[in-house]
Amino acid sequence: AQSVTQLDSQVPVFEEAPVELRCNYSSSVSVYLFWYVQYPNQGLQLLLKYLSGSTLVKGINGFEAEFNKSQTSFHLRKPSVHISDTAEYFCAVTLNSGYSTLTFGKGTMLLVSP
Amino acid sequence: DGGITQSPKYLFRKEGQNVTLSCEQNLNHDAMYWYRQDPGQGLRLIYYSQIVNDFQKGDIAEGYSVSREKKESFPLTVTSAQKNPTAFYLCASRTGQGTEAFFGQGTRLTVV
Question: Which residues in chain A are contacts of B58 at CB distance < 8 A?
């Protein structure tokens, strides 16, 4: 079975600063990886996904993530955050063979202050 | 517009009562899911269905039931057997393996 660990429950950052939200996964087989964003009292919206190919994945709202197979990581980055990026971010994993559900991490709350 | 509709957005229930949360999708997706979200615990899978008339238990199925009579619909019933039903419930769907899940806007259930 697969699992996801998001290493920080909360990340405070000032506006226009860079940010990295960390995600590590565990799986005995190859995986697909996703990052989602959730604003208060709303559903989840896909930011980006890694299925195959280039390990650097670009998503919406200026976010990008890098897949590192040797370190089993998929960290999310943004070079300059805005107040509007304040939200909860979830990393998710699914296996790339057979049928597999999506497994989510516990989330990281990004708090952007002026 | 295609998407997933959950209703109602807010729901209040008295202890001991069953309640059904609605989830409808017009994306023509085969698979549908129910997740429960509690603060600091991420999303936990309750039930999922890969095809009509078939569904499987997730990690926290006790106290919940589902049906999948139509491809578009996957209602969740929170029964009186669920000890701590107050939570935010999210419905999702996807086309199949290797694809992302699309989410509804959620239903916040409060037991009073």
Answer: 101
